[in-house]
Amino acid sequence: TTPVQAAPAVSKDGNVFASPRAKNLAEKLNVDYTLATPTGAEGRIIERDIETLVKNGVMAAREAVAAPAETNAAAQTAVAAPVAEYTDEKIPNIRKVISKSMFHSLSTTAQLTVTSSFDATEIMAFRAKIKPMAEKGLVANITLNDIVMYAVSRVLTKHKALNAHMLDEQTMRFYNTVNLGMAVDTPRGLLVPTLKNAELKSISEISAELKVLAKEAQGGTISPEKLTGGSFTVTNLGSFGVETFTPVLNAPQVGILGVGTITNRVKTVNGQIAVYPAMTLSLTFDHRAVDGAPASKFLKELCSALENFSVALATLE
Fold first, then answer.
1. What is the value of pTM for the model shown?
2. What are the residue ranges of helices labelled H in the chain?
3. Residue 58 burial by CB count (10 A; 0-12/13-18/19+): exposed, middle or buried?
4. Are the beta carbons of 262 and 120 closer than 8 angstroms?
5. 121, 123, 125, 128, 301 from 312: Cα distances, Å
6. Exposed, middle or buried: residue 224 (CB in 10 Å: 0-12, 13-18, 19+)?
7. Residue 2 has what pLDDT?
8. Residues of the chain with pLDDT under 50
9. What per-residue confidence (pLDDT) applies to 12?
């Protein structure tokens, strides 16, 4: 029943007419009986009027209601309806798909996560040089995420065990090209568009194509073909201030990289304490397909490539 606003039972001379039983019930229910609509003889509020008041949702406590009309004309102010304790909603279909995929991944694979960090000074300096040029339209607007994706596309070619699918207990599929998945937060839920042949593309090409894929995914115009075929995935929560997390495999892929935000840390340089920006990378892998040592080697090489990005650009292109 939709809550209604009741008219106070106040006479012209300011007297309120209510039966003793009506007042007693109002006292027990902690409501103001003057808000009830009288149906008794000679305009008197009776017990059933209090019951109707409560049934229709007028639940104002006596303390919250203004004084009688003879002292305060605000007695006829509207009373707010109570706020629902909770709301039940149907789960959207895309959420059902994501839920099923995550549950299947966690229940059918042996997931293990290793974490490492690197000095992000070089990639931040590279980004700082690119940004003003990009604002003038002279070069592509390369982001820190683009830089990480570029480095992954190059380093992954040397670690085929992670650029793979585990199809079943007897069959592995090793990719000869890097089809890089990028987790994208969209209004419909998490989507993972794929950048095909990433290892063959320049950092500017990777940057441009990733922006197109993200825009299509967020706008709901991406084709299904672009959401399949990934051989490895990168998910970045750095923009949300997350320092480190445990990403869940996008099965049947055997590896996924989680990228955290940049935080200040300290280290010793020539005997002196120095502050440096650090970025954390978390690699989750399927331990059925990959052992800890080769997974850790990939993560170490990736951190080194990013920490020495100017050299990586020259040698990994």
1. 0.72
2. 20-29, 47-55, 93-108, 121-135, 144-155, 203-219, 292-307, 309-316
3. buried
4. yes
5. 14, 11, 14, 18, 11
6. exposed
7. 42
8. 1-9, 11-13, 61-71, 73-78
9. 45
Residues that are catalytic: 287
- What is the per-residue pLDDT for 301? 97
What kind and span of H or E run contains 190? strand 189-191
SS3 236: strand
CB 108 within 8 A of CB 250: no
Q: How far is CA 23 from CA 37, 61, 261, in A?
A: 13, 13, 63
The first and second tokens of residue 45, run together, are 């509020």
Q: What is the pLDDT of residue 193?
A: 95
Cis link prior to 132 (omega < 30° from 0)?
no
Which of these, 120, 257, 131, lies nearest to 183 by C-alpha position? Answer: 257
What are the tens digits of pLDDT across the range 9-48? Answer: 454 445 678 888 888 888 877 778 888 888 888 788 898 8
Q: How many CB atoms lie within 10 A of CB 123?
A: 24
Q: How far apart are the first and last CA of the chain?
A: 68
* Amino acid code (one letter) for 47: E
**Burial class for 242, CB neighbours closer than 10 Å (0-12, 13-18, 19+):** middle
Residue 229 corresponds to which tokens in the numbers above?
């075929």
